[in-house]
Structures are given as structure tokens and as C-alpha cells.
């Protein structure tokens, strides 16, 4: 899905910087975007520390690549090396020499942003500043960047660690890939939640991801998830402020309705997006499926017909799992998703609480599953036909009626057998 911009503000052309300079004049106190490519929070003018300040402390850890280096690394941006494409531009697999010049070249992902003027520079700058500051096992690592201004326009590139297993989107929705097992889905979504919790609660400056979706959850060689694409990330509100006021951007189907309606961005906007992805994990369906019948096209509208506690809930589970999942855990995941998707953003859980709940669900599932690790959705519910009348809550009179009907059935069956024998003898004679 492509990103949208509800208000359709277009940035005016300004002079471009060839390096990620992050210090800027005092921003507006309402947290609006000044259009200079630096994301800031509400009241950032009085905040003692901002992303720009933190970036300056760690900027020396990033490599500064020349355009020719990255051109060689990608064989002149060969189409055969393209591994991703979106509204931001294209991503290529490349190989670069280690920073110390010793050892074998390493594989990297090189994002080449579109030459769309100021917006391209703005997203590049946001990624440099945020990824230059954050450090977590569930966030993609930025190795370095490249910025060149020439007669043919600007060139803005980013160099990341290479993620060989592509994205969660590929493994959930692309039928060319094997179905993700239940246990792996749980570990991936837990890792993604931990990444968001770190951004929201563990940094000196709160970071709102603003574009959480399956295509932005990349998977390494061990299927460990890492959040990527920080081009739309913003600083969260400072203490004393409830939100950041900003133009509405993101991906249709994932953006929180309160954010769309008001432009008020909070960490709970990411929580809503996380709830959408939880249902995608459960169902194997995208948030918007235009090829489905009209009543099933919008995932959140469709799943409302199958509440977590209902008997028909299992109808929404991804059929590619082939019943190899815990139904009780799936119900709990759906209830967790519902809590993330409540209308009032204040009533949604924090991501740290989401992480805690996911760990509890996974632990309970592991303790209740057989030793071989495989389990069927039917393990968690008794077969209705195996329950006695008393267990199903029937009265004594109803029990007697069932017994009477059973005897009648036996009597009819006996008559049918005798009739069959008579007909057979008639044929013989």
C-alpha cells in the first residue's frame, strides 16, 4: 500500500543541504512541522534535549559514503539487484568493504530515494537522525548515508544492514513463500512490539514510528524482526503536552481514526496500527483486500462478525496454518488486538503492556502444547458430540426424551434390517 497525505500539503522548494545538519531555529510550540526536514515534538523549543542533540553525540558512528562507492556497490543500481520499491524510492542489495578496510565485503541494503525535491530530502534526514540515535535488537541498523547535490538534482541514499528474509508482509501474504508457523508468528510480533515499546518508552526522547505495518517489519536470517523505514517518524510530545499536531501521513488501513480526524499524533497511534497487524497475523489477510467480496474487503469490519469468544471465531484464522495453532491463544491475541483498536486513544494499552501480555500468551501456549511443538486448534475445545447431556446443561426431562428418541432410532434401524433381509430372500427365490 502506498502512503497517503490527507491534507495534501506540498512543501515549497528550498535550498538543500548536502549533509544531515539537524540543528534548526526555534520551532512552533504546537509541535507542527516547519517543513525543514527535522521532526520535532510539541514544545520542543523548551525541551532540554531533542533528537538533533542526541544525534550529534552519535553521528560519528555512521559512515559517510560517496555516491560513486554506492554506485559500484550496486553495479550501477542494477535492476537485478533491486530488492524493494515503494513511494520513497528503490532498495538495492549491495556489497561494501568493512569500515577498517580489512576482511571480506559485507552485504548491505541501499535505499536510493526518489528525486522529488524537498520531500525526498526530508524523509532521508528523518531516517538519518532517528536511526542514528536508536539502538535495539528489533530496529534495523543504519550503517551510513550519502548526500550529493549536483546539476542533475539531489541524491539521497541510506545504507542499512541486509535482511535476507525480506519482510513480514512477504511471508504472510505472498503465496510463493511457505506459510509462517504459529510459533514463528508469535515470536515475530513480540519482537516488533518490543521495538515499538523501546521507541515509545526507553529513549530520552519519545519516538512515534507513525507507519507501522507488515512491510516495515524486516526479518533477518533467523527471522528476528526489525522495524525499518523511519522516514515518517516523529518526536513525541514533551511532558505537559498530550500530542503532536501534524499533517496526516501514513498508510491507508493502518492509521488510527483519531489521528486521521484531528491530526493529533500520539504513541497510541502506533498502538492502533499494531492492533491491525495483530489481526493480519491471525487471519493471513491484508488490512484492505480489494479482491474479496465487498463485505470482506476491510479487515477490521470483517472480523467484527467473528468475536473472539464466539464459536465461529476460528473461521477467521489463516487457513494456511492448517489448524496447527492454539485456539485459546488465538482468542487472547484477538482480544489484545481489540484493546489496541478501541476508539478512544486514551483507553488503548501502552506498548510495554502489550509486550507483557504477548509474553504471557506465548508462555501459556508453550506450557500447554505437546512436547513435539505441534498442536491442533481442536485441542482446546471439547467435541460437542462427546459431551453428555448433563455436561451440556440439559434438564432431566430433556435427558429422558433423548433416551426415548435413541430407542426409537434403534427400533427403526431394526425394522429396516428385517425389511432388507426379506427383500433379499425374495430376490433369491
From TrEMBL:
Binding-site residues, ATP: 112
Entry keyword annotation includes Transferase: no
Keywords: ATP-binding, Nucleotide-binding
Disordered as annotated region, ranges: 17-41, 365-400
Bias type Polar residues, positions: 367-380
Superkingdom classification of source: Eukaryota
Residue ranges of domain Protein kinase in the record: 77-362
GO molecular function, one term: ATP binding
InterPro entries reported in the protein's UniProt record: Kinase-like_dom_sf, Plant_Ser_Thr_Prot_Kinase, Prot_kinase_dom, Protein_kinase_ATP_BS
Pfam families: Pkinase
Nucleotide-binding in keyword set: yes
Name of this protein: Protein kinase domain-containing protein
Amino acid at each position: 500500500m502506498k502512503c497517503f497525505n490527507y491534507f495534501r500539503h506540498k512543501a515549497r522548494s528550498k535550498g538543500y543541504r548536502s549533509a544531515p545538519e539537524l540543528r534548526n531555529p526555534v520551532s512552533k510550540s504546537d509541535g507542527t512541522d516547519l517543513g525543514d526536514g527535522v521532526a520535532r515534538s510539541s514544545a520542543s523549543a523548551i525541551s532540554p534535549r531533542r533528537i538533533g542533540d542526541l544525534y550529534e553525540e552519535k553521528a560519528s558512528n555512521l559512515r559517510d559514503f560517496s555516491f560513486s562507492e554506492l554506485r559500484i556497490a550496486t553495479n550501477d543500481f542494477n535492476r537485478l539487484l533491486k530488492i524493494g520499491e515503494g513511494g520513497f524510492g528503490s532498495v538495492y542489495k549491495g556489497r561494501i568493504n568493512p569500515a577498517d578496510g580489512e576482511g571480506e565485503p559485507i552485504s548491505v541494503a541501499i535505499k536510493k530515494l526518489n528525486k522529488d525535491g524537498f520531500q525526498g530530502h526530508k524523509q532521508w534526514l528523518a531516517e538519518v537522525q532517528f536511526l542514528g540515535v536508536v539502538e535495539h535488537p528489533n530496529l534495523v541498523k543504519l550503517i551510513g548515508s550519502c548526500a550529493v547535490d549536483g546539476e542533475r538534482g539531489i541524491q539521497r541514499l541510506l545504507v542499512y544492514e541486509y535482511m535476507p528474509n525480506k519482510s513480514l508482509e512477504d511471508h504472510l501474504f505472498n503465496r510463493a513463500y511457505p506459510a509462517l508457523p504459529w510459533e514463528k508468528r508469535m515470536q515475530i510480533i513480540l519482537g516488533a512490539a518490543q521495538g515499538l515499546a523501546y521507541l515509545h518508552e526507553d529513549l530520552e526522547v519519545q519516538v512515534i514510528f507513525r507507519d507501522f505495518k507488515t512491510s516495515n517489519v524486516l526479518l533477518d536470517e533467523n527471522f528476528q524482526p526489525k522495524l525499518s523505514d523511519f522516514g515518517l517518524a516523529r518526536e513525541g510530545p514533551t511532558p505537559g503536552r498530550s500530542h503532536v499536531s501534524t499533517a496526516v501521513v501514513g498508510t491507508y488501513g493502518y492509521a488510527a481514526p483519531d489521528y486521521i480526524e484531528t491530526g493529533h499524533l500520539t504513541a497510541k497511534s502506533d498502538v492502533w496500527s499494531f492492533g491491525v497487524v495483530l489481526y493480519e497475523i491471525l487471519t493471513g489477510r491484508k488490512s484492505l483486500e480489494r479482491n474479496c467480496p465487498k463485505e470482506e474487503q476491510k479487515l477490521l469490519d470483517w472480523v467484527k462478525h467473528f468475536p473472539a469468544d464466539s464459536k465461529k471465531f476460528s473461521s477467521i484464522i489463516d487457513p494456511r496454518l492448517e489448524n496447527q495453532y492454539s485456539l485459546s491463544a488465538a482468542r487472547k491475541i484477538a482480544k489484545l488486538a481489540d484493546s489496541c483498536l478501541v476508539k478512544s486513544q486514551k483507553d488503548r494499552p501502552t506498548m510495554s503492556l502489550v509486550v507483557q501480555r504477548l509474553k504471557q500468551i506465548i508462555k501459556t501456549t508453550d506450557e500447554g502444547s505437546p512436547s513435539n511443538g505441534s498442536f491442533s486448534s481442536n485441542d482446546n475445545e471439547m467435541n460437542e458430540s462427546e459431551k453428555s447431556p448433563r455436561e451440556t446443561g440439559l434438564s432431566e426431562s430433556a435427558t429422558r426424551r433423548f433416551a426415548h428418541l435413541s430407542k426409537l432410532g434403534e427400533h427403526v434401524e431394526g425394522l429396516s434390517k428385517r425389511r432388507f433381509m426379506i427383500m433379499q430372500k425374495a430376490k433369491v427365490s
